Amino acid sequence: MNKKFYITTPIYYVNARPHIGHVYTTIACDTIARRQRMLGADTYFLTGTDEHGQKIERAAQAAGKTPQQLADEVSAEFRAMWDRMGLTYDDFIRTTSDRHKCGVQELFRRLRDNGYIYKGTYTGQYCVFDELYVDAAGPGAPCPECGRPTETVHEDNYFFKLSAFQDKLLQLYSEQPDFIRPETRRNEVISFVRSGLRDLSVSRSTFSWGIPVPDDHKHVIYVWLDALANYITALGYGSPDTKLYDKYWPADVQMVGKEIVRFHCVYWPAFLMAAEVPLPKGIMAHGWLLFEENKMSKSRGNIVRPKTILDVLGADALRYFLLREVVFGQDGSFSFDALVQRYNADLANGLGNLASRTLSMITRYFRGEVPYPSAAVAHKSSDDAIAKAAGKAIAEFSTAFDQYQFSRALEVAWGLAAAVDKYIVENEPWALGEKQDEESRSRLATVLYTSAEALRIVTALAHPVIPDAAAKIWVQLGLGDIKQFALSDLKWGQLHLGTKLGKVEAVFPRADKSAVERMQKMEDQGRPAPAATEAQAPASASSASGQFATQAATPAEPKATSISPDGKISIDDFEKVELRVGQVKVAEKVKNADKLLRLEVDLGNEVRQVIAGIAEAYAPETLVGRKVVIVANLAPRMLKGLESNGMIVAASPEGGKPVLASFLEDVPVGTRLK
Ligand code: ME8
Q1: Helix 315-325 and helix 20-38: axis angle, to 10°?
Q2: In DSSP terms, which residues pair with 589 in a beta bridge?
Q3: What is the pLDDT at residue 595?
Q4: From its phi and psi, is residue 478 left (phi > 0), alpha (psi between -120 and 50) or beta?
Q5: Is it the case that residue 542 has pLDDT exceeding 70?
Q6: Is 70 strand, coil or helix?
């Protein structure tokens, strides 16, 4: 029977639309799943969306939608993007589906029946952004994970006896050193657990967007217990049909970003131990994709949409770039420049060029049939060197790839391609092709066979990473459907004499200089509003309203709303403006813009980047921690290349400096002004 292989991605929150951070994890898993299938493993690849919890409830409120509407929309968007990219997931789980809800309730019952759940009162801090209880902290303390201010929660909740698992978890980490990878993350988790585990609240009772606790519908199950369970509920855990669960669980690898390691390496195994469910074989945590030096995330407004790259360069380019450029496990930067540079160097000029020159010459000199290195006289040591290098590449690629060192694995495969390129240049097949004598023909056959065979090997190895291009090259090599190829058999010499090549076509057309600019422009245009200039921001400050607009004012548009002749607006019109209390977390000057500050403002359920024209009135350091009023539902705009997501409210005295609106009493972050 074939070995089974079960791989999972995190399930993504539906408060943010897919960006290339989400793509990164999902293509890494897709690549691993594809390789496992080629190696003959019975593979199951799960992804999906995380749709419950306070964060989603608030995001829906802010968007004027029901949580279910928001979840339906965004979940569909994730799925459509994965389909467009050709990702080969076997199942897409949604936490609002009935199958998931039943499984989660069954897990909760199991934990309760096994004596690990009790009722208590939680008084402490909670970070809605991370959906994390922050026990040992005072009111307003920052979340240790994201730095956003926490909220005080006082609730009667159900608790899980996490403290009972401290020793068992430490034993797990020591007995299975590969349970957490890479080593740095493992060490962090071990020291976290060693420092002591408190029992964990696993229900909430002050909002309702979640799965009800069985037999006590006043509570919803804590969103992380709900979400983590997806890895087994998708397989039928807790349902009458457990065929998939019996076959695929435990997971062979669960891939996560480094910020959710605690949930996966501490809470998850503890829940499973308590429920007497086998543990996954390992959790692999990768680093962050950075853009403009910061973690790419919706709250920073520095995301890159996959669509832009797919439209210009295609999915293989993005897959190759992310896995080749970033050392898996560490943080890595994304830039359009680097993407295009790698695309041209490694794909267009590298593999693409090797394929087209080799296959074109076989077409030209041997009527499109693979020639065979026949006469011993035509053999040279450089031919053997390529064969040897190919064997070594197969072994090294496999070792690196199976340890998730994708960058190293690709470097090895492309190293072989570069060696073949050099071999072609040195052997000058085009010159041999001009000669008709037996020896030259024989030598030409050897050189082209060697090149084509090495090309076949690079293509087979690279297939999980660049599936579309590899499938095309395979067809051009006359080998049919690459998916049918058994990778475990890959070795030198399998390309048969006389194999009829397919039609030779370029697989990676070169990207011209404008590609970077085009992609940048598409990203900017993809944002809801056109870019505004810095100069407009202060200009709108001294507008008749007396309110200081720190963001460029929207050009006057015909108003759909009713304004009475005396200039008064209705209460309905006023209510369209969403004013909220925010707290400044970060303030810094904007390069080459004297009047602008870049602020990160916490609005309770999210942190917004706001570009404010107040630099002449406030030093950045005086603003951090200060509560301000934000117009929260303005369309984002670009200012000096930065996205501004909201507007800070200030009085603007005639001829004077702006004065920020503030409060005498303490007001919770996120409160709406009406
Ligand atoms: O945390 N770089 O969902 P989420 C690299 N619902 N990876 C990134 C990334 C970036 N800049 N941004 C996102 C959640 N990711 C929970 C998970 S699982 C039971 C519940 C990827 O929408 C990365 O895999 O915030 C990260 O862990 C995940 O998306 C977080 O997605």
Answers
A1: 90
A2: 597
A3: 87
A4: left
A5: no
A6: helix
* Cα–Cα distance for residue pair 594/234, rounded to 1 Å: 54
Strand partners, 158: 119
- How many angstroms separate the CA atoms of 447 and 372, rounded? 9
Q: Is 24 in the pocket of ligand 1 (CB under 6 A)?
A: yes
pLDDT digits (tens, 9 = 90+) for 235-259: 999 999 999 999 999 999 999 999 9
Pairing of strands 203-204, 216-221: antiparallel
CB atoms within 10 A of CB 601: 28
Phi-psi region for residue 569, left (φ > 0), alpha (ψ -120 to 50) or beta? beta
Tracing tokens 């209705």 back to the chain, one arrives at: 570
Q: Does residue 399 contact residue 393 with C-beta atoms inside 8 Å?
A: no
Closest CA to 82 of 32, 15, 9: 9
DSSP assignment of 57-69, as one string? HHHHHHHTS-HHH
Q: Which amino acid is at 424?
A: I
pLDDT tens by residue, 467-489: 999 999 999 999 999 999 999 99
* Two structure tokens written together for 117: 């759940």
For residue 377, what are its two tokens?
A: 């006289």
Q: Determine the Cα–Cα distance for residues 9 and 91; give it in Å rounded to an integer.
A: 11
Which of 522, 528, 514 lies closest to 638 in space, CA to CA? Answer: 528
Q: What angle do CA 67, 70, 76 make, to 5 degrees?
A: 135
pTM of the predicted protein model = 0.80
Smallest Cα–Cα separation from 10: which of 319, 259, 244?
259
Distance CA 71, CA 60 (A): 9
Q: Ligand 1 center to residue 380 CA distance, Å?
A: 52
Distance (Å) from CA 24 to ligand 1 centroid = 10
Q: Does the CB atom of residue 21 touch ligand 1 within 6 A? A: yes
Q: Nearest-CA neighbor of 421 among 359, 354, 488, 373?
A: 354
For the stretch 152-211, pLDDT in tens is 889 999 999 999 999 999 999 999 999 999 999 999 999 999 999 999 999 999 999 999
Ligand 1, pocket-test mutation among 260, 262, 283, 326, most atoms within 8 A of CB: 260
**Which class for 633: exposed (0-12), middle (13-18), buried (19 or more C-beta within 10 A)?**
middle
CB 44 within 8 A of CB 3: no
Q: Is the CB of 628 under 6 A from ligand 1?
A: no
| Angle 146-251-27 from CA coordinates, rounded to 5° | 60
pLDDT in tens, 270-284: 999 999 999 999 999
Q: Which tokens hold the place of 447?
A: 């050189």
